[in-house]
Fold this protein.
Amino acid sequence: MNALLLSASSYKDTGYLNHSKGWIKEFLGKNWDEEILFIPFAGVTRTNYEYEKRVQNCLENSNIKSIHHYKDMKNAIKNAKSICVGGGNTFMLMAKIYEFDLLDEIKNAVRNGAKYFGWSAGANIAGKTMMTTNDMPIIMPKSFESLNLFSYQINPHFISGQIKGHNGESRETRLNEFLIANPSEIVYAMPEGTAFLIDGDKAEVIGHSDILKFEYKKDVQTIKIGEKIKI
């Protein structure tokens, strides 16, 4: 299995997908020059066509084609060599994936050799469930179960500590709440500018900072850049 899971579409002030363009191109290899099937369903505030064009322009690759162009979406996934899932609202993304009955198709395609990459919501749903998303539940998907390509929970866009002027819970508090309710789970918190590069049953941390591992009633562990975990 091959996957690239990006915490976010941007890092600091580098602009949309600029920090990850090289990673994506290297990850895809020869697939960069062939059709890349794009799943735009998380993009609530833009049309599928607008989202497709934005990703094409930012990655400078006209081979990216949105799945909404296909009448038979399942067959498009089955024949895809590369699948890209964009960020946005995770609840909407999973609701649409369930509406079109695409979950098992995506899983099977990746396990049969298709390369998968996604950012933000697209990374979150590659985990065991979507329950550690940061997004507002604007729609109810059929289930919180997601692709489970990465056998643990993912929390993208992780920011440590209490944000100045914000009186609500910190991200650490929210993740600890999840673990109290789900004590057997493990959460990997990914700051912006980080990614998991998955090859087979190993995931390597790449990017600009370390990733944090949260477990119930255990000290938070740091997974450093270059380290690999078994998935």
Remarks:
- The chain has a mean pLDDT of 97.
- The chain is about 25% helix and 25% strand.
- The helical segments are 21-28, 48-59, 73-79, 90-99, 103-111, 121-124, 171-181.
- The two ends are 11 Å apart (CA to CA).
